[in-house]
Amino acid sequence: MSDEQRQTEQPRVVIVGAGMAGVQTAVVLRESGHRGPVTLIGAEAHPPYDRPPLSKAVLLGTAEGSAFDIDFAALGVDLRLGVDATGVRPQAREVDTAAGPVPYDVLVIACGAEPIVLPGTEDVAGVHTLRTLDDAERLRPVLARQHEVVVVGAGWIGAEFATAAREAGCVVTVVEAADRPLAGVLPAEVATPMADWYAESGAELLTGTRVTGVEPGTVILADGRQLPAGAVVVGIGARPATGWLAGSGIALGSDGAIAADERLRASAPGVYAVGDCASFPSARYGERLLVHHWDNALQGPRTVAAQIVGESERVYDPVPYFWSEQFGRFVQYAGHHAAADTLVWRGDPATAAWSVVWLRDGVAVALLAVGRPRDLTQGRKLIEAGAALDPELVADPALPLKKAVR
Predict the structure, then answer these.
(1) End of a domain among 213, 234, 255?
(2) Is the separation of the CB atoms in 172 and 202 below 8 Å?
(3) Quick one: 97 and 242 in the same domain?
(4) Helix axes 294-309, 20-31, angle to 10 degrees
(5) Cβ distance 300 to 266 under 8 Å?
(6) Residue 321: inside a domain, yes or no?
(7) Which of 1, 9, 142, 254 has the greatest count of CB atoms below 10 A from its CB?
């Protein structure tokens, strides 16, 4: 059988989304031996790039970009950039785009997430989000001019941007509606000590404070205060970028994410979903997870590619992992602590290095490490193994975490 015959017998794969999840899907498909046509559609005109450097090196001007070092032509991938996907017609097996319909045999949706916009600020000059390379490029001169900057939201992206802005010499005020940073993702006893990091860096953190309006040069708070702002950066979360799927019949959850199954299959035949746009059921944690982090976009494509090439019926049930660099600290998290019944401290949060471990019925389910990468490495393996730990041994920060196994 000729190469041409083999290629025509293998399905046409169309991937919508040229971020980490989409690019990794294309790469792993080729590594797995898929010889059929692969089309990668990206809404941005830039060559596909990695996002984590945007809030660090790209924003501060120490790097010009973070494009993936991939020769798509050599890989045999038809890369179509600057093309918006506008709909899917599963019965016809076509993706509608601004450039016309694109037929597929297998569709992989990897369209990512989009930032939540602060209501009423859509058309206000000087209000920014930080999600794309263009966003970072617009913000670079803002930092270079050392403006007074107001950051709305003390989540991961707010903290990372505040860190970069302080490094650039800006006057930074962070406004958070909750009573502490990271209120939506970490319990109070863990997140509250992190509030001190802002003051240490020279940033002002206003908690329990809501923004009621933004005018050019000014942020208006609910208590009547007005903050001078050469720029406003909004970091109040992101939602799956799935609005274009309306009317397709592809099932979405109440969170707007594509409701994929344990093999990352969407509800329509021949359609998969991976990365920030998709939720999946986790047997490990007993609930459906929506993970907006880089490692999920890196790992999920392996499951999708395995299904497409027919090599595996592997189930996708990872231990979620992410990291954040903020205020001179390297913060790492592995697992999912929602159902934990015990939290164990390792070290003093007033110091530069500490961690916490969450247990459920004595079994490790999650870990947060600040400046303790060894804890993270060992803890992640223990979580994956479902290891039972002795809380008293876990609490000894001088003892390697792997020595705490019962």
Answers:
(1) 234
(2) yes
(3) yes
(4) 40
(5) no
(6) no
(7) 142
Tokens 């303790």 locate to: 372
Does 48 share its domain with 108?
yes
Is 348 in the same domain as 298?
no
**Domain extent for 132:** 117-234
Query: Which pTM was predicted?
Result: 0.94
Tell me the CATH number at 49. Answer: 3.50.50.60
Domain boundary among 178, 212, 234: 234
Question: Are the C-beta atoms of 316 and 263 separated by less than 8 Å?
Answer: yes
pLDDT tens-digit map of 240-277: 999 999 999 999 999 999 999 999 999 999 999 999 99
Q: Is 211 in the same domain as 242?
A: no
How far apart (Å, rounded) are the C-alpha atoms in residues 266 and 210? 38
Q: How many CB atoms lie within 10 A of CB 142?
A: 20
Residues 102 and 248 in one domain: yes
- pLDDT for 7 equals 46
CA atoms within 13 A on the CB side of 358: 20
Is there a domain that residue 319 lies in? no
For β-strands 271-273 and 278-282, DSSP reports them as: unpaired
**Residue 230 and residue 122 share a domain:** yes
CATH number, domain at 333? 3.30.390.30
- Count of domains observed in the chain: 3
